Structure to design on (157 residues):
């Protein structure tokens, strides 16, 4: 069985409900996974938007949520906050310059939101603190056992 990331809120390729965006409650969607590779010691979740600011002329990738050292047996409930994360989970700095989830809020057009889950063969060192996505990707190098993604789309009403 291959690695799968899924949500009860939306299916791969579908619209993300308003509830999880800046036009709604701006809370994280529920996420679960299965089919992790043997030897998975921790997980990394990166949610980003490669279509910023305009899908017709993207200039950057906007990072919405960065988590690392997620226990393989964990799940992420709807509305997950720093206080509710599984013990030992670290948070990275998103493109707003803070930790935590920031929902879709595209300034123009319909954007894609990639929820990427990585299975690692190690727990990353706590000295990472609150890394940027690039710092986290460097720390993960040579430790990735598997990767999967769930893509949602959103355009402001």
């Amino acid at each position: 069985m291959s690695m799968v990331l899924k949500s009860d809120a939306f299916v791969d390729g579908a619209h993300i409900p308003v509830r999880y965006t800046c036009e709604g409650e701006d809370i994280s969607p529920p996420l679960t996974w299965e089919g992790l590779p043997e030897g998975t010691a921790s997980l990394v979740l990166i949610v980003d938007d490669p279509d910023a600011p305009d899908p017709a002329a993207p200039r950057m990738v906007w990072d919405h949520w960065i988590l690392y050292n997620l226990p393989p047996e964990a799940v992420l409930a709807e509305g997950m906050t720093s206080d509710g994360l599984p013990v030992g989970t670290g948070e990275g700095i998103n493109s707003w310059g803070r930790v935590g989830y920031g929902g879709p809020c595209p300034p123009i057009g319909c954007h894609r939101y990639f929820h990427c889950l990585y299975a690692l063969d190690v727990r990353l060192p706590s000295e990472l603190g609150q890394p940027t996505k690039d710092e986290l990707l460097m720390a993960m190098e040579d430790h990735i056992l598997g990767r999967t993604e769930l893509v949602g789309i959103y355009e402001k009403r």
Observations:
- DSSP finds one helix and seven strands in the chain.
- The chain has a mean pLDDT of 97.
- The two ends are 38 Å apart (CA to CA).
